[in-house]
Design a protein that fits this description.
The complex is a heterodimer. By secondary structure, chain A is mainly alpha-helical. Helices cover 63% and strands 1% of the residues of chain A. Chain A is globular and about 70 Å long. Chain B is globular, with a radius of gyration of 21 Å. Classes of the chains: A mainly alpha, B alpha/beta. Chains A and B meet through helix 1, strand 2, helix 3, helix 12 and helix 13 of A and helix 1, helix 4, helix 5, strand 10 and helix 17 of B.
Chain lengths: 332, 426
């Protein structure tokens, strides 16, 4: 963090990096020489609580999950062992390599569930981004007064003031067979009979998830847009750039870190989803989250652990891909 | 399920606790956080956990008053209750659990053998849980009928037939079937086969608990004459495959509106007009009627699906606390509490004790299946039964002479769970 960095690369001309609201780029002549500082005693204490917390409540549990995934389920708990059986159960399909078999080259239900979880996550994440970006753009770029910016941003956050479950359940009276939307459709004569696809369907599931998670994308995008130096935009305009050019060449690249962070938030949380499907999809699908919960429920902890590990791997791959698409460090 | 020597159990017990402790933050912090709320230990009192069926503030308050020591209740959802009973038996003294979980709890030895000699009214407890026959002509029912699991030796290992020690003192129980809105079905529902009737396509909900949901489905499949199951409470892989293929076919046709997981959802589905009929737990009927929506509980000709709850004592309890645990159980059996829950439709293993605490009109309605002679209240005093209404399924004794199958835990539980996931994903 405090190591001396070579000043030769042009990008480094920007000088010391700071928090949101960096000052204008400092010309190379004025850049203060960077000094290697000894982190010293107090720094250790600053990071100690977080480190201990992470070790105790993140690293050790993760390690536990990995270890227990190799243990044997006893029907009422688990016995120490080293077995690959749980992983085999995750992947293995009878007749997978047999061209005559109906299961030929069909992935196991657990692999398929992980895949549908992933596919659905990506879809919802994409919708979230498409909705969140214009919203954040409006807040950050179009609303001039800071007071209004903050007020509107807080309004966007209002749904977060209620519990997650209530936000999901609130869709029921809206989309149900005798819900508001159906009553509207029937009374205006658009449909004759109430339609049933609105609720307990992929439609309602997607709607609810987008509504639940879109705010998580708005926040980071808003912040990264808000910290773009207006002088840059003015300069570009002075030099004859069109609005579209300004957006493409300046605003979009500079807001990419926010987009990436928003994507990571939404992605990770969606991958672990299990409750919304029950409420608005009528439990008519299963996610890897529900599978973990179900096997936990029947005390098959090792198999729940295997699913948790696979889910975690999928999440890590997704996060790595997102970070590949956007180099957050570079963009910040 | 194999029994294990106690030495091995100890090691396993420790690792299990450690597992739960360490995964609590890991797998799903949210779930874990709600799964393990702590109840402060009441000094010199009891902590009892269970479902909302038997853990109700009024009951534990009355117990504290009558017994002279505090009894703190914690009502949990089924999954949380199951996990806590299995993994944290130092966090409760009394487990108000269910006989269909004994296949897990017994070999785990999380509960101690209960000495029937210390159960004052043991001899008065009905034969339903002792021999499986409430009346001489009753059928025992398939699956984990309580009498098949209740008896153990002094070490907690299951034995066949009557013995001095038991795992759980029988208490509250009931039988489930299908609830329906007669206005929507336009005909009385008298068979489990109706769950799959094309007439109700898109307006049927099933219980999304594979262990129980499959049995409801199997009753329907059997009633349709598609297949006979050897033991619906303990199906073979082949039987599970057959059933799941059938369910997947039905699901793809759009037959099911939803799969519900908790009581509230089942109530909402019918109140909101989403379904015409669904597998249902009996108290849902009164809850739905309370919302002004007509609802009838079917008494299928194939018989109902029975379940039985009871009182277990944690293996960690000893000394004076153990005496209190027995006192609480004896107090429960004596009738005040079972009479309280009788007004929600639950039955008790010593019916005569309930009679003492019910008004004659209540007894006639809830236990004898007679028309209500006057308006009757629920446990909290709200009138839920109008004069003249009749409880479906007749008297307690008629209902329990025809239990088709008991809530069970199958040997192929893991396979069932897997195939059920496939059904939901289809």
């Amino acid at each position: 963090m405090t190591a001396i960095e070579p000043l030769s690369a042009p990008r480094e001309v920007l000088g010391p990096r700071g928090l949101i609201g960096d000052g204008p780029p400092i010309p190379i002549e004025q850049a203060e020489p960077r000094i290697r500082r000894d982190p010293g005693f107090p720094v250790v204490w600053l990071i100690a609580p977080a480190t201990l917390w992470l070790i105790a409540f993140l690293f050790l549990p993760l390690l536990g999950i990995v270890i227990f995934s190799f243990w044997k389920a006893s029907g009422h708990g688990l016995t120490p062992a080293f077995t690959l059986e749980n992983y085999q159960n995750f992947f293995a399909v009878e007749g997978f390599f047999d061209p005559q078999h109906e299961n030929f080259l069909t992935p196991s239900i657990f692999v398929r569930t992980l895949w549908t979880t992933f596919r659905f996550t990506v879809t919802v994440m994409a919708i979230c981004l498409l909705l969140a970006y214009p919203l954040a753009y409006f807040l950050a770029m179009q609303v001039e007064s800071f007071k209004w910016q903050l007020t509107l941003f807080l309004l966007v956050m209002v749904p977060f003031w209620t519990s997650y479950l209530i936000r999901a359940v609130a869709w029921l009276p809206m989309l149900g067979r005798h819900g508001l939307l159906n009553e509207f459709l029937v009374s205006t004569g658009i449909v004759e009979e109430p339609v049933s696809f609105l609720l307990y369907s992929e439609f309602s599931y997607t709607m609810a998830l987008v509504q639940l998670y879109v705010v998580l994308a708005v926040g980071p995008i808003f912040f990264s847009l808000a910290k773009i130096d207006r002088a840059l935009l003015e300069a570009a305009r002075d030099m004859g750039a069109t609005s579209f050019q300004i957006f493409r060449e300046i605003i979009l690249p500079l807001s990419m870190p926010g987009v990436a962070i928003g994507m990571i938030f939404v992605f990770v949380l969606l991958m672990g989803e299990f409750a919304t499907a029950v409420v608005v999809y009528g439990g008519k699908t299963s996610t890897t989250g529900t599978i973990i919960l179900n096997y936990y429920g029947i005390a098959n902890y090792p198999f729940a652990a295997v699913n948790a590990i696979m889910l975690m791997l999928a999440m890590m791959i997704g996060v790595v891909v997102i970070l590949r698409l956007v180099d957050i460090r570079k963009e910040l | 399920m194999a029994q294990t020597p106690s030495g091995q159990y100890l090691r396993r017990g420790l690792s299990r606790r450690k597992f739960v402790k360490t995964t609590a933050a890991g797998i799903a912090a949210g779930v874990a956080a709600t799964a393990f709320p702590r109840v402060p230990r009441a000094a010199g009192g009891l902590r009892t956990i269970g479902l909302g069926v038997s853990i109700i503030n009024e009951i534990q308050a009355q117990a504290s008053k009558d017994l002279g020591f505090p009894v703190a209740g914690q009502a949990l959802g089924y999954g949380d209750m199951f996990s806590k009973m299995l993994n944290q038996n130092d966090q409760y003294e009394i487990g108000e659990g269910y006989f269909n979980d004994l296949r897990v709890m017994q070999p785990a030895k999380v509960w101690q053998p209960i000495d029937t000699k210390r159960i004052k009214e043991w001899d008065r407890i009905s034969d339903l849980t002792k021999t499986g026959k409430l009346t001489p002509e009753a059928s025992e029912g398939q699956g984990d009928a309580p009498f098949r699991l209740i008896y153990i030796d002094e070490h907690g290992d299951r034995v066949k037939g009557p013995s001095r020690y038991i795992t759980m003192v029988p208490a509250f129980h009931n039988a489930d079937s299908i609830g329906y809105n007669p206005k929507a079905t336009k005909r009385p529902i008298e068979s489990w086969a109706e769950l799959f009737s094309p007439d109700f396509k898109g307006r049927v909900a099933l219980l999304n608990v594979p262990q129980i949901g499959t049995m409801d489905a199997a009753l329907g499949v059997e009633a349709l004459g598609l297949r006979k199951f050897g033991d619906k409470g303990n199906m073979t892989k082949d039987e599970i495959d057959f059933l799941v293929s059938f369910l997947i076919k039905k699901k793809k046709e759009g037959h099911f509106r939803a799969f519900w997981e908790n009581f509230g959802q089942s109530v909402n589905l019918m109140v909101n007009g989403e379904v015409a009929l669904e597998s249902m737990w009996s108290p849902a009927v009164t809850a739905i009627r309370a919302e002004g929506v007509p609802c009838v509980y079917a008494f299928p000709k194939e018989g109902m699906r029975g379940w039985h709850g009871g009182m277990a004592i944690s293996a960690k309890v000893s000394g004076a606390t153990l005496d209190q645990a027995y006192e609480y159980i004896n107090w429960w059996l004596a009738g005040w509490a079972p009479a309280f829950v009788a007004r929600q439709g639950y039955y008790h293993s010593i019916p005569d004790n309930v009679k003492k605490y019910l008004e004659p009109e209540e007894w006639d309605y809830w236990y004898l299946g007679k028309p209500a002679a006057k308006d009757l209240p629920d446990p909290f005093g709200t009138i839920i039964i109008k004069k003249g209404e009749v409880r479906e399924g007749g008297s307690y004794w008629a209902r329990y002479s025809k239990i088709a199958v008991w809530n069970s835990l199958m040997d192929e539980n893991n396979y069932l769970e897997k195939r059920w996931s496939e059904f939901l994903s289809a």
